[in-house]
Amino acid sequence: MQVYYNPKVIEKNQVIALGNFDGVHMGHKAILKKTKWLAAQSGAKPAVITFEPHPVHLFKPSVLPIRINSLKGKIALLEKAGIENCHILKFNRSFANLSAEEFINKYLAGNHIVTGYDFVFGKSRTGNAELLQERLGENYTIIPPQEGDGVVYSSSKVRTALKAGDVQTANFLLGHNYFIEGKVLHGAGKGAQIGFATANIKLKPYLLKPKYGVYKVQTNYGAGIANFGVRPTLDGITEILEVHLFDFRGDIYGKMLNVEFEKYIRAEKKFASVQELKNQIQEDIKIAKNEK
Description:
six-stranded antiparallel beta sheet, about 30% helix
């Protein structure tokens, strides 16, 4: 996939999915699937226009962090969905002041555009599906609400589930396992000292924080358990994601670790002793290994 950062001009004759695509959940996947299908029918390239940072960084910084994926993670998901060109527009005050008409003329004209039913854009959010239909006519496709088991897919529902530790619901809404990726850091070695070596990742400050606790996970180095939180028995201050891999003993410091969350096992807690913590970790591993 070709990625274009803040392009001055968007190539014409593409089929372009337009949106924030935070999480690339099942609703987003329906938009991308239609984009790919329309592109195949016309011999055009399936593309995306998205924004960085998320508009909430500019308009509602008090509610941060909310991002489900890093930009790198979002790009990987878009590529997996079959998108060939990804145009990332810098969302700053100047960009936000573009009128809806200016945005259409500068970035959308000459392409077939696909959006979700609730997409809004332009200064004061005056652009919407109705305006796109009026201006683009046959070169516009709107995707209605998408749902599963009676629930409409949305990024906000994914965030709510993750904050509650309900990974299975989040994964259902996403259509893939929620994941955090990052470079493995050198830690204090406390996990290894008690017999459970860990690979540590520090979350980027703009990323959503899932509920503190212990999770069953799958990584690019195999299965394991992860604790996200402040490790109250050993530290109590430093917020970090610690991953204990079941069947891997290599050195991965400085390597990229992709951690997929499969199930929430228990809440993080402070134990009366290190031995009590060790006993609980052994129980956590047993639970994770026995989960189907």
